[in-house]
TrEMBL record, chains A, B:
Stored InterPro entries: Amidase_CS, Amidase_dom, AS_sf
Xref: PROSITE patterns: AMIDASES
Residue span, Amidase domain: 77-543
Pfam families: Amidase
SUPFAM superfamilies per UniProt: Amidase signature (AS) enzymes
Residues annotated as the enzyme's active site: 133 (charge relay system), 208 (charge relay system), 232 (acyl-ester intermediate)
Name of the protein this chain belongs to: amidase
Keyword Kinase tagged: no
Keywords of this entry: Hydrolase
Family: Belongs to the amidase family.
Organism the protein comes from: Tricholomella constricta
Length: 565, 565
């Protein structure tokens, strides 16, 4: 990087390089107009995808892995199909950052040759394309993370997760967009711009793994990797109608990825998968857990995939589970479609023979307060240090008009001393202790002899919002702070008839009033509705199993409804 | 606590209460004079212990558990014997803080009745007395932790570990002495005074679990619980010639115990056992791991005792292990007895058919530097906040003349901001990553096809030092910072003939020179010599198994030597 260049010049150069990395023959000239909001049907209609490309990209992970392992489909074919669809998605939503399809096809070709020569797959994810959030480093590829200052920062080695995924047989082909600093629940930065929601481009795709969310919704990847420090996997998953899993801390290797707030160890970001099927989530997690990554990342817990936990041995083998629904967190009442999503889930679970009770949230505001204090403890210094190098402006809002507002902004979070941080940690420790005891005490209410098996919670108090309106991550950050694994499941979509605005209720807080006022069904047209299934710390395998049960109940209910029609 | 009382008055009152808690008939009038340094033979000679008391207290944990489970010995008998011997130990070394033998005997009696009535033990530690470092809370008992300000602070509930130990059948009867702040490798505070080393009372028993070390050396407990943030279990174990284990973070529950530097989560203290046999260490760990304590402490990793790890499946089933010896850490050359201890271990392991190579320490000084920076980040504020209440003086040295020097001392550690702390965390993360990669790269040198299986390291650069001379914890803190489990094994004792001072070497550092100058065999008479066996993060089960192998090799060598004589 030449020192004399302005940040705008650096961005212009980087954008040219990005454009040049797109195969020319995949550049579309028939893109829908910006006023066309829901573009989810465009990829299959645009003419770029062959019938086989469409068949491949519509196949869930389980089917893809079977066809790849049996050489019915080559990795070249599968990688090409997803690459094409990813490039279409990018042209519709601006979801990609780094694009390295040549490299991916070379790898796919090697995998095909290996299978042909040996008759054996390299690993359980043999030949499967996987997209990566921008921060996950691949040797020789930039990890700008949307910071102008990091343009030209080519990774010197792979992240540990990249090595693990390649050992499993995966093909890596694109990286996806994020917000500046990663600490926003929407996706916009000065280098790559804004990612929009494929279901309604006037809405955000969420963040910080917003590029992944948009890509997934358009089936541009069978599995993607995001990161989640306060909801950054789950919010885009929910906003874009895909599955997404925030594992417990220390089970998926983070070493070698770049990050924001590095050294902030009190409430660590975790990597985890997004996928269009729950099977994709399981394949990813089971695969990564099999790789003994604690041998390569000292922060990974030495704990293999636990099949007993997956079989729900501690949850009555999953036969009659008791779920508890968080209807609201005591601070903000969710919008009508979110409540309807919870009701759909409740009905489906009851129909499947499970028990459903209400969850009274304990200290959610206080718990989220400790998270905010921890992130704010040094974030201003962190952000300003990074952006100082090229004087790119600090982004202080995700609103659309931000893009015209490029003056340098002060970074204003309150910094505290290490001793003061320790006091926050004490509060967090005590709140986690109380929450665990509170959960376990539900054994007297469930009728199963066990405490509540899993929580069912909104992912946010709203579906995808208009740009700049996603102001809170309280329904997700709570579970980062408690370190609970949580899996997002799509349930439905905003319905202009069913999801009418409700009469005014007694507001729980100022935020609740603002949230109530934000809602008009018309502003949230076609937005996906999702829930998250939440277990206790390190119950990752059990949460996947219980989410499968919830997902199957929802599917059975939908198919029952179809039959009834 | 009356606000008007001086700290000295508060201490005087507390000491009276402590004295009153000692059964009168066990107060000895025939104590050896203070000039008698090695008092390890006094307990059995003093006349207080019956022949059966002596037999019981000389029996290792495995034998005790067998006799207790089969009702050959009652818990009343066993608890009485260890209580008597603990009270003798206390009169010789000042090792106890809280004494609650009545309560213990009531519990023992209940356990005996249960066994009689049901024919079944309560758990695998049925009837076994276990001592606790002062900070581990029992409902209704003070947890002063040696702070005058905390006199009268009666615990409102049990620590999670206490509940787990009681569920396993243990009997709790005494708590043990610690230094003010816990952050010293010796043991002295204004409330309970100084604990001395039973092998040589002019030497320190080590710290911060120094009361445990002294108690163990005099066989006043079959198992004791200490805590280790920089060596606080291992240093007293080594100085007092007993076994001691620092587990990985997050495997033994800490919740509910009081602590110093609370909220300092970067480099947490861990609880772990001391015992006079390695079997005692294993019984404790296997028992605690069986208790699913993650259901009661959110910081415990959901990871059961792993029998495969204990069987050394990843270490060639333990058949031909490769150990690497740390002869010095690149900063301070250990004293002659410590080097001799390592040589003894090397010879024993070679004779047992294992391989032994030299370990070249990587960045030990830098790694320890991150630990010091972390502790110092807020310690001054932490200590001064606690002592302010009663104006007890801050202890700024462990030297004997400290006791005459009660003026208030300033607390001088450098405090840093949360952001600066994050920068230290980044260094620590990178250093841990490098160390792991360095260790794994030894696979090319071991000849076993595996990396080095375990390290053999000094526990300190010296055996127990004269009071106030234990200035560094570098040989232990390194493994806290790396979060490696480490188990201390006694090897020998300082020998006035074999452990002559060596000729001057080229000093590695100023500390090295000071350490060289400190040594004269006469000043370290009878001090135990120990080593520690170190594995990688969460290899707790494997470290216990490998330490058993080392211990057996040492015992075989000793018995071979006896045969040869």
């Amino acid at each position: 990087m030449a020192q004399s260049q302005t940040w705008q010049e650096l961005v212009a150069e980087k954008k040219l390089r990005q454009q040049a990395s797109i195969p020319k023959e995949w550049i579309l000239t028939n893109l829908p107009s910006q006023s066309e909001l829901n573009i989810t049907e465009f990829p299959e209609a645009c003419g770029l995808l062959s019938a086989k490309d469409i068949e491949i990209t519509n196949t869930h992970v389980g089917g893809l892995l079977e066809k790849l392992a049996s050489a019915q489909w080559s990795s070249m074919e599968v990688t090409t199909a997803f690459s094409k669809r990813a490039i279409i998605a990018h042209q519709l939503t601006n979801c990609l950052t780094e694009i390295f399809i040549d490299r991916a096809l070379a790898r796919a070709s090697e995998l095909d040759a290996h299978l042909k020569a040996t008759g054996k797959v390299v690993g359980p994810l043999h030949g499967l394309p996987i997209s990566l959030k921008d921060q996950i480093s691949l040797k020789g590829i930039e990890s700008t993370m949307g910071y102008v200052s990091w343009i030209g920062k080519y990774a010197e080695r792979n992240a540990v997760l990249v090595d693990a995924l390649e050992a499993l047989g995966a093909v890596l082909y694109v990286k996806t967009n994020i917000p500046q600093t990663l600490m926003w629940p929407e996706t916009f930065n000065h280098v790559f711009g804004r990612t929009v929601n494929p279901y309604n481009r006037s809405l955000t795709s969420g963040g910080s793994s917003g590029g992944e969310g948009a890509l997934m919704a358009l089936k541009g990847a069978p599995i993607g990797v995001g990161s989640d420090i306060g909801g950054s996997i789950r919010i885009p998953s929910a906003f874009c109608g895909t599955y997404g899993f925030r594992p417990s801390t220390g089970r998926v290797p983070y070493a070698g990825s770049v990050n924001s707030l590095e050294g902030q160890d009190s409430l660590p970001s975790v990597l985890g998968p997004l996928s269009n099927s729950i099977g994709g989530i399981k394949s990813f997690i089971q695969g990564v857990f099999s790789q003994s990554t604690w041998l390569r990342d000292p922060n990974v817990i030495r704990k293999k995939w636990d099949e007993d936990e997956y079989r729900l041995v501690e949850h009555g083998s999953g036969k009659k589970l008791c779920f508890a629904i968080i209807w609201n967190d005591g601070q903000v009442v969710p919008h009508p479609p979110i409540i309807r999503g919870l009701e759909i889930a409740k009905k489906a679970l009851l129909a499947a023979g499970h028990k459903v009770i209400d969850w009274k949230p304990l200290n959610h505001t206080k718990i989220n307060g400790t998270a905010t204090a921890i992130f704010g403890a040094g974030s201003a210094m962190d952000f300003s240090t990074v952006i100082a190098e090229t004087k790119e402006p600090y982004i202080s809002s995700m609103a659309l008009d931000q893009e015209d507002f490029f003056d340098e902004q002060p970074v204003t979070a309150a910094e505290i001393s290490a001793y003061e941080l320790w006091q926050v940690h004490k509060r967090k420790r005590d709140l986690r202790q109380e929450y665990l005891e509170y959960w376990l005490a539900t054994a007297s209410e469930t009728g199963t002899g066990r405490p509540v098996d899993a929580l069912i919670s909104p992912v946010a108090a709203y579906t995808a919002t208009p740009h700049g309106k996603n102001h809170s991550a309280h329904y997700t950050m709570i579970f980062n702070t408690l370190d609970y694994p949580a899996l997002v499941i799509p349930v439905s979509k905003v319905d202009q008839v069913l999801d009418q605005k409700k009469p005014v209720h007694e507001f729980l807080s100022k935020e609740d009033q603002a949230n109530y006022e934000l809602y008009e069904p018309g502003s949230f047209k076609d937005a996906p509705i999702s829930i998250q299934v939440v277990g206790r710390t390190h119950e990752d395998e059990a949460v996947i199993a219980m989410a499968e049960i919830v997902d199957a109940a929802l599917k059975a209910q939908r198919s029952g409804l179809k039959h009834a029609l």
